[in-house]
Design a protein that fits this description.
about 280 residues, mainly alpha, Arc Repressor Mutant, subunit A, 14 helices, 3 strands, ChrB_C, DNA-binding transcription factor activity
């Protein structure tokens, strides 16, 4: 297949050719022409236009052309899912989607500045996306800091930055409101689902969550809220222990009892008896 797009590529117009050659058509040919010639040359050359307005392979709402290729060709690969968010963040200037997006943009812009031949630029860009894909496949959990002393320094710095953080980011405020709104009605809150409402990468949310929510993970924070609600319900004799467990989102009474005791040091029945003695 032949593919054609506008000249001077940076993000989408290199990322998409990489995706095509690696997952769709190894023999694909790519043509770069001035923007106003893309459609005309596409007809003359029998090439498929991409990453320009009013063609099939383009941006849709907040999603970039790379997103569309992945969806169109049903590329089911966890590493590609990671790459997709990074590319989207870099191509749409939403670097909050993935911490790697800003770096990808910086490298791509610098590469385009240094290399004026678009096909040479594409070949060099292919190397970058090969490396990024390898990282997404094998190295996401690796850190550059390997020395134990260096790790201790990094942890100390992280603790300092966390305690000295004065401004709560907008997403954290919105997330707290979402949790408070849904905790009573949504018994299976998912950080991945909530991340879609916030338009923030779920991996980023998971990593940053504890900084703004009592130093707890998402799961621990939700359990803490459910236990607080359970304590309120236990003060009323109207609800049985089974009903309290259900109303606070626990799968069964034994699970509820175990988590409740972990948080309070007492099982629910003991807690209720002690309340009646006061």
């Amino acid at each position: 297949m032949k593919w054609i797009t506008r000249e001077r590529p940076k993000i989408d117009r290199i990322a998409c050719p990489w995706l095509i050659r690696r997952f769709i058509d190894k023999e694909a040919k790519f043509i770069y022409v001035p923007f106003d010639e893309v459609k005309k040359q596409a007809e003359l050359l029998g090439a498929i236009p991409f990453d320009i307005p009013e063609v099939e392979f383009t941006h849709y709402e907040d999603y970039c052309t790379f997103d569309y290729f992945v969806k169109k060709y049903k590329i089911d690969d966890p590493a590609i899912e990671t790459l997709t968010i990074i590319v989207r963040g870099a191509d749409t200037d939403r670097h909050n989607l993935a911490q790697q997006s800003a770096g990808l943009w910086a490298i791509s812009a610098g590469l385009a500045h240094n290399i004026t031949n678009d096909h040479e630029l594409l070949e060099q860009g292919m190397i970058i996306y090969d490396a990024l894909y390898s990282w997404a496949c094998h190295l996401q959990n690796e850190s550059h800091t390997q020395n134990p002393f260096e790790k201790l320094l990094m942890q100390t710095l992280g603790d300092y930055l966390k305690t000295s953080q004065k401004r709560t980011p907008k997403w954290a405020k919105e997330l707290k409101n979402i949790i408070q709104d849904q905790i009573d009605t949504q018994l299976s809150l998912s950080l991945k689902d909530i991340s879609k409402d916030l338009n923030v990468n779920p991996s980023y949310l998971s990593r940053e969550f504890s900084k703004y929510f009592d130093d707890l993970s998402f799961g621990d924070y939700i359990r803490k809220l459910r236990i607080e609600k359970a304590i309120q319900l236990l003060q009323s004799p109207v609800y049985s222990l089974t009903e309290v467990a259900y109303l606070t989102g626990f799968s069964d009474q034994s699970h509820f009892t175990r988590i409740f005791k972990k948080h309070t040091g007492q099982n629910p029945s003991e807690f209720r008896k002690n309340l009646s003695k006061k």
